[in-house]
Every structure is written in structure tokens, then in C-alpha cells.
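Record 1 of the preview.
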Amino acid sequence: MRAAAHDDRGASPVELAILVPVILLLLFGAIQVASVFIARAVALTAAQEAVTAQRAYEAPEGVGQARATSFLAKAGDWLTGATVSQPQSSATEVRFTVTGTALSVVPGVSFTVSQTAHGTVERFTLD
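->
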């Protein structure tokens, strides 16, 4: 009975050496997925801010881009290298696209994020 107890000595460190890399890979993968989702949310919110500002009645040109850029400056580094597109607008609708790169925890890997928002331009109409 005593000899059987000594046969599995050292099994725990070997199991730990096998499982730790897998656990770390899963942990970093989960953090990366969360980072991409947060970057998407930041890009969408910036695009919505731009649309909200630009769709106001008789809004001056460039107010939407300025508001989106201001939001991105305050949002942190979740979305790096972000650009706000020129407004694609017609008489009744305005559209903005925000594009950038999500923060990466894996060296050498980058995830591009692009989100678009659109809205109806405020205007007076006759009955």
C-alpha cells in the first residue's frame, strides 16, 4: 500500500506545467475578445455622437466630426488610431463611420473596428 502512494509523486507539478499555458491562453483570449467588444462600443458611440451633433437643425459643417473626435479623446485607448469619416449626408439623412484598431494584448495581432451610425436630419416641413 505504501509503495503505491509513492508512485504518483511529482504528478501535480507535471499537470500544472501542462495546464498553465492553456489557462493563460484562454485568459488572454478572453481579454482580447473583451477589448474588441469595448472598442466596437467606443466606435459606435463616437459615430452616434457625430450623427447627433450633425443632424441638428442648421448645424454648421464639421460639428459632427469635432464632437466625435472630442468623445474619442475622452474614451481612453480602447480604440487607437481612430478616424472619423466625412459625413455622408443628403437632404434628409446624415451618416458617419468611425474606424480604428482595437487595443491588442497579443503582440503582432491587430483587430480593425469600424462602426457606422446614421440619422434623419432635423428640418421644417409644411403640412
